[in-house]
Design brief:
The chain is an alpha/beta fold. Helix content is 36%, strand content 19%.
């Protein structure tokens, strides 16, 4: 199948790995930004295929994982209100707050609903005019257009009983925060393919130049990641630092201008708190003043909620590429998908969830190595 099988070909993978071995002469630390890339790496054993001198570390590109605990608690407080229908994508339902999760609230009688599109909330609001419909609008630039469309439609159509609890974050400021940190080890990035499909990659160019760090915008299939890694290493070995587009079959430098226009009509850029990281200046979207009648944080009494992260959870260090899930003393013991301490263990894009799902918490002799591994053929 085009764009599936051809990007999972073990023979091609081996050729790319051989070329990485030929090109690489120094140790390098490369961060893949997207959580989807992390899962592809761990599922296919890509990190095992690379030479010992090339280390892949996992970035803050999981939208569920970087949503701060206090925002989760605000969501839960609103969802518990009797006149509220709280709508969310399914990946937020098992994320733990200070007390329980959205599944718990639903089991206790809260009206929590999974939607497959933000616009589903329009129909729900029209069907329930005496209820307040709240949509949990999280994510990176990728989901911002669809969430912006909900606010835009609600305002244009006069649907007064819809609001958005917004926790949108932006990738470029997070990369700057990582590169500025005194603990930073990252020398190059596999950039966020889906984000750049919406926003383009022009805004990454000054970051690459300022910090002399290669950024290769990369897809999510195994061969995308291996090719992106090779392209990054070639830059590092020749002391180049620029933005390259490995994912050219999907995106271009300018991105989707229509989507960008909608986003900037509805949202404005401001400071945003990230889970385990703290406040990053100008790293998030907030609803513009003309949409405040649809801003759940302003409509509900939740401003006073301010929650501390559990000290045992090291998700912040994992999201910054400082540590990996196996470095956490709670990984696979006190923290499991059944009893998670943080979002990185339950999110579909979380690094801890990937490590657990593909047996990285097991001893080597217990691991069932998949026969479909991208590197199986040589």
């Amino acid at each position: 199948m085009k764009y599936l099988d051809e990007y999972r070909d073990g023979r091609v993978a081996r050729k790319i790995v051989d070329e990485i071995n030929r090109v690489q002469t120094k140790p390098w630390v490369i961060m893949e930004v997207c959580g989807g890339q992390t899962h592809s790496i761990v599922k296919n054993g890509i990190d095992y295929l690379l030479p010992a001198g090339v280390e892949l570390v996992h970035g803050p590109g999981c939208p569920v994982c970087v949503t701060p605990l206090e925002m989760i608690d605000k969501a839960h407080a609103i969802a518990r209100m009797p006149d509220v229908i709280f709508c969310s994508f399914g990946d937020m339902l098992r994320v733990p707050g200070s007390v329980g999760d959205l599944f718990t609230i639903k089991s206790e009688g809260g009206d929590v609903r999974v939607v497959y599109s933000p616009l589903d909330c329009i129909k729900i609001a029209r069907t329930n005019p005496d209820r307040k419909v709240v949509f949990f609008a999280i994510g990176f630039e990728t989901t911002a257009p669809a969430n912006a469309m909900l606010a835009w439609r609600a305002k244009q159509e006069g649907v007064k009983n819809i609001s958005l609890l917004v926790s949108h974050v932006l990738v470029p400021p997070a990369l700057v925060a990582i590169l500025q940190s005194s603990q930073n080890r990252v020398q190059g990035f596999l950039g966020p393919g889906h984000v750049c499909a919406v926003m383009g990659y022009e805004e990454y160019e000054p970051i690459s130049a300022r910090f002399h760090a290669p950024i290769v915008i990369t897809g999510f299939e195994p061969l995308d990641i291996l090719q992106g890694t090779l392209m990054t290493i070639r830059q590092l070995e020749t002391e180049r630092a620029e933005v390259e587009n490995e994912y050219s079959r999907i995106l271009n430098r300018d991105g989707n201008k229509a989507a960008q226009d909608l986003v900037f009509r509805v949202f404005e850029v401001g400071d945003r708190k990230w889970r385990g990281i703290g406040i990053i200046p100008r790293s998030g979207y907030h609803l513009r003043p003309e949409f405040h009648e649809h801003d759940a944080e302003k409509l509900f009494d939740v401003a006073q909620i301010d929650t501390r992260e559990p000290e045992i959870c090291i998700s912040g260090e994992i999201l910054r590429g400082i540590k990996k899930p196996k470095d956490c003393p709670a990984f696979g013991t006190a923290c499991t998908p059944q009893h998670p301490l943080g979002a990185t263990m339950v999110s579909a894009e979380g690094a801890c969830a990937a490590y657990y799902a593909y047996g990285r918490h097991l001893k080597k002799e217990e691991v069932d190595v998949p026969t479909h591994s991208v590197g199986a053929a040589s």
